[in-house]
Specification:
elongated; 7-stranded mixed β-sheet; Rossmann fold
């Protein structure tokens, strides 16, 4: 039976939020992105019909077009993206032990394919967002550009100073995206950008299952944010294992297991447990780590083999006296109390900040 594991890209594999950095190529672009990202959270939480978390990557297209950003610039920004520590080792080790890794990401194709190439995952195993930006830039009309300029001014002068005023933010951006642009060429371009987030991530996992003739109950999926919650929850509800890696409040309730770490190779303890006993093995391993974490970290060489692979024990042993090393933590997430969830979130928030930097504040 094929052993399938699917990763979100931004967060678990690379700390860069590519779209955030690409929009940062224009003046005040980061502030515009943060406002649109906040709007994305609002639409997601109110469950707007036809809207999926991560559709921010569609909403920022008008700004990319107006400022003439190119696909080549997206690739150049991606070239500067780091890889999360331990990821390349983990992917290589997974493949050596018979796992078939996939990427399911909201990221633009130009970025997703670049990162996949760096870590050894074939383009054919990447589900991501197609963006024909160069064509859209060529088709820009002056009238459309003026609408975007007006929106940028309002975002920067009126909306960004108080992003907590959800009513005002939503009213202005509702008008811009769904009324002002709806009958323009740019509005049509936005509709063409089908972002792989939310339900579309779960659909992608199901497509992998169909193509590989496997079942979601045998999957491991790894995610960290609001765009992953349907994939995480869907695989969990199918009997599979959803791992929240340095997760935020939006996705944590949909995980089976949590992993707070600055190095991805700690995931190998869970994949090895899955090979041994399936989901039950993962739960057993996480439970033991929660109970015996201090002892395991103080003497990694003595961790029982069923709870850490040899390479994980060696890695922990090498870092046990390193004062700057973030001590990893595993957590059971299913059926826990609100108080326990809040406690776990504190640990994940710290690891998330260390790994992702400024991008950690985005949904």
């Amino acid at each position: 039976m094929a052993k399938i594991i699917c990763f979100d890209l931004e967060g678990p594999l690379s700390p860069q939020d590519n779209a955030y950095e690409v929009l940062g190529l224009i003046d005040a672009g980061h502030r515009i992105f943060e406002a649109v990202s906040r709007y994305d959270d609002i639409l997601t939480l109110e469950k707007r019909r036809g809207y999926e978390p991560g559709d921010t990557l569609s909403l920022i297209v008008p700004f990319l077009i107006r400022h003439g950003i190119t696909e080549e610039q997206i690739r150049k920004v991606s070239d500067n993206a780091k890889i999360v520590d331990g990821v390349k080792y983990t992917i290589d080790r997974l493949k050596e032990t018979g796992w078939d890794p996939y990427i399911i990401s909201t990221s633009y194709r130009q970025h997703a394919h670049n990162i996949a190439g760096k870590i050894g995952i074939a383009k054919e195993k990447v589900y991501c967002t197609r963006l024909d930006l160069d064509r859209y830039v060529r088709e820009l009309h002056d009238a459309d550009s003026s609408l975007i300029e007006e929106a940028e001014i309002d975002i920067l002068d009126d909306l960004y100073p108080d992003l907590n005023d959800e009513k005002k933010l939503k009213a202005r951006l509702d008008r811009f995206f769904w009324k002002d642009l709806s009958k323009t060429g740019i509005g049509q371009a936005m509709k063409e950008v089908r972002v792989v987030g939310g339900q579309r991530k779960l659909d992608a996992a199901k497509d992998v299952a169909k193509k590989t003739k496997t079942k979601l109950k045998n999957y491991i999926v790894v995610g960290d944010s609001i765009t992953d919650y349907r994939m995480l929850g869907g695989v969990r509800d199918s009997g599979g294992v959803s791992v929240v890696f340095n997760g935020n409040v939006f996705c944590m309730p949909y995980g089976v297991a949590g992993l707070a770490s600055t190095d991805m190779r700690l995931l190998l303890a869970l994949t090895a447990a899955h090979e041994r006993k399936g989901k039950a093995g993962v739960l057993e391993t996480v439970r033991e780590w929660e109970t015996r974490r201090d002892a395991f970290l103080s003497e990694p060489s003595k961790i029982p083999e069923e709870y850490a692979t040899a390479d994980v024990r060696e890695f922990l042993d090498e870092n046990k006296t390193n004062k700057d090393f973030f001590k990893p933590a595993y957590h059971l997430l299913e059926g826990i109390s609100k108080e326990k969830m809040e406690e776990i979130l504190i640990t994940h928030k710290r690891a998330r900040s260390l790994v992702r930097g400024d991008a950690a504040k985005l949904g």
